Amino acid sequence: MPPKVLIVAGDAAESLEVYYPYQRLREEGYDVDIAAPTRKTLRFVVHDFEPGFDTYTEKPGYTCQADVAFADVDPGEYAAVVVPGGRAPEYLRNDPELRKILKSFFDADKPVAQICHGPLLTAAVDGLRGRRVTAYPALEPDMQAAGATFQDAEAVVDGTLVSARAWPDHPGWMREFLRILRAKAPVT
Q: What angle do CA 109, 112, 114 make, to 5 degrees?
């Protein structure tokens, strides 16, 4: 069986930040599960950048069936985890089951890919202290408050943690994450 990768999501996750890594990892031969607070149809959003707006805009996005509820996830079954952004991380960080899952990945030094607002989740398990990260630029103060050094770059690698600012950074983000994942959990 190929190595498994977990994507953690919820309603209002950014569509592209879930589907791009999902499809890219499957293309590489990894088995990918999407986990959510409950096993249900998730409603994603699309964040876009439009002239004249001071920040991103939000529109309804794709839907997706969650494969597994957080309470039923065994982190030991997974080689890595992907933490998408969108608005979902704002409330998902309060889920004790998800915090246990994420902490186990950091404790085991397994690859973690985070993007956009996803670092709000990894900050909630103290996974960023002393690390170099990037995130959606408006989160720079949050990253510093979590003990991280913020870098405004396409992809920032710190050990097995790979972070990116937002979906326009997908190529660099996935390139770096897959480099680490292939070394730690190659598809045979």
A: 150
Q: Which of 24, 99, 110, 117 is catalytic?
A: 117
Report pLDDT digits (tens) over 28-78: 999 999 999 999 999 999 999 899 999 989 999 999 999 999 999 999 999
Residue 4 CB burial class (10 angstroms; 0-12, 13-18, ≥19): middle
Q: What is the DSSP letter of 155?
A: -
- Global pTM reads 0.97
Residue with tokens 């097995």: 160
Nearest to 80 by CA among 3, 155, 12, 188: 3
- Rounded CA-CA distance 131/118 in Å is 15
Q: What is residue 10's DSSP assignment? A: -
For the question of residue 170 being annotated catalytic, the response is no
